[in-house]
Amino acid sequence: MTNDIAALVRDCLVEAGSTFREDKKAAYRRAIDKEEQAHAKWVLQTVLENAEAAEKNRSPLCDDTGIPHLVLELGPDCAISGRMLDDIREGVRQGLCQLPGRPMGIMGDDSHRIDQSGGLNPDSAGVESAPILLRRCEENVIRLHILMFGGGPAIRGKTYRIFHRHSTQVVLDEIVNWAQESVAQLGCSPCTLAIGVGRSHFEAAAMMLQAQVDGSYDHQSEMEAEITRRVNEARIGPLGLGGSTSVLATFMKVGPQRASGVRIVCLRPTCCFEPRIATVQLQ
Amino acid sequence: MIELQTPISEQAAAALQVGDTVEISGYILCGRDAVLPKLLQMIEEGSADQLGIDLRGQVIFHTAVSPAGVGPTSSNKLEIESSIEPLSRAGIKLHLGKGQLHRETIEALDRYNAVYAVIPPVTALLGSKTTEQRVLAFPELGMEALHLIKVERYPAIIGAAHGRSIYDK
């Protein structure tokens, strides 16, 4: 059982780092058909061609293979043990070796890790996962989602408060402003905007993560569609070269809210390959 | 589509225009934030000949080289963008990366008849077009060392040339 879990997690991580989901491929095809700017169309075609090559070879979509972020779902009668967490960690380690992940773990004490003076760990598996997010699911299963987070969207992302003034439109307007600025700086568009709205920075970031798990390119809410449309009107385009495809879709999750004039919003302008995500049932 | 073979001649560089799509073949240098200041220091100290290659006509690709492959990092990061003028002065003809550059960098490229090209971050495709790689200097930097790789038909778009930028609206 132990080895089974590690192997399942390993294969899931490799899939996350090398494969576009079907709804994403379809979104790219739709964007290629609609895009009229020649450079933009060429970039979109090249990114899709890259995804096909990566999937075929089970090799990285991008050389920034990302930091593993894990979402673990538990059904009503399921339990998770410390040993199972160890097996998941072992699977991540094996997956990073197999993909292979970029060896970008930073060594040393707290100060060394901040200023990067402790050197790079030469091992692909030297990259640790972010803390695991746990949530309930309806089916009686243990399910793991693995997302690989690259550095570019982390540089351009933002978690901050918005005074809503009792208007959803005020919050949406501010999100669009943030998104236009961050997408223009990203360099690796077209983006998928991942947005979480919560009562604290932690909750907003957790919502942003879950938005990527639950989001679909085939089904967009009214708010998601509005944000996508308005950011695309800025005509930043793929790689910032202009055109109508700056954003492929928006994945937004709104959590419980506080009786207050403030909403905490987390925006991650995920790059042309993200969300890099795969899912596996562990039990 | 314009085919560019390295080293790139003054004439070939001068003929490139913003928006041209190119395919680059031959040996190219790879370096980013960590190594470019060290390369500049070598040039300043007059010890760049220890690299064993002539910088004139070369391409520099703003990337790490790791087991995961290659792919452009943002060329407008401080240490990278600030290397563009002195490296162009030293003879580099094409800087390969991604992202919008500042106006003064675009003008500096023009002064030295050099260009900036944008390459999509398509690591899987670039892997199939990369046939050799070796560390040229600063091996202690690992994936961020100065590398020399041999490439076949790397796709790119000319993003800045002759004082113009593809990002100009």
Account of the 3D structure:
The complex is a heterodimer of chains A (283) and B (169). Chain A is an alpha+beta fold and 283 residues long. In chain A, 43% of the residues lie in helices and 22% in strands. Chain A has nine helices and ten strands. In chain A, the strands form three sheets. Chain A has a four-stranded mixed β-sheet with strand order 4-1-5-10, sandwiched between helices. A four-stranded mixed β-sheet of chain A has the order 6-9-7-8. Chain A is globular and about 50 Å long. Chain B has one domain: Alpha-Beta Barrel (fumarase), CATH 3.20.130.10. At the A-B interface, helix 3 of A face helix 5 of B.
Features:
heterodimer; A: 283 residues; alpha+beta; four-stranded mixed β-sheet; 9 helices; 22% strand; B: 169 residues; alpha/beta; fumarase; five-stranded mixed barrel
Strand fraction of chain A equals: 15-25%
Question: Strand tally of chain A, please?
Answer: 10
Query: Which sequence of SSEs, written as H and E, runs from N to C of chain B?
Result: EHEHEHEHEHEEE
Overall geometry of chain B: globular
Q: What is the fold named in CATH at topology level of chain B?
A: fumarase
Distance between the termini of chain A: 10 Å
Low confidence ranges of chain B: none
| Beta strands of chain B, count | 8
Task: Compute the number of helices of chain B.
Answer: 5
Query: Mind telling me the C-alpha Rg of chain B?
Result: 14 Å
Record the strand order, biggest sheet of chain A.
4-1-5-10
Q: Radius of gyration of chain A, rounded?
A: 19 Å
Query: Stretches of chain A where pLDDT falls below 50 for ≥5 residues?
Result: none
Brief summary:
The complex is a heterodimer of chains A (283) and B (169). Chain A is of the alpha+beta class.
Give the arrangement of secondary structure elements.
The complex is a heterodimer of chains A (283) and B (169).
Chain A: H1 2-18, H2 22-34, H3 38-57, E1 67-74, H4 82-98, E2 105-106, H5 110-115, E3 120-121, E4 133-136, E5 142-149, H6 151-156, E6 158-163, H7 168-186, E7 191-198, H8 201-214, H9 222-232, E8 247-254, E9 262-270, E10 276-281
Parallel strand pairs in A: 1-4, 7-8
Antiparallel strand pairs in A: 1-5, 2-3, 5-10, 6-9, 7-9
Chain B: E1 2-5, H1 10-15, E2 21-30, H2 36-45, E3 59-61, H3 78-89, E4 94-97, H4 103-111, E5 115-118, H5 123-128, E6 130-137, E7 146-161, E8 164-165
Parallel strand pairs in B: 1-2, 2-3, 3-4, 4-5
Antiparallel strand pairs in B: 2-7, 5-7, 6-7, 7-8
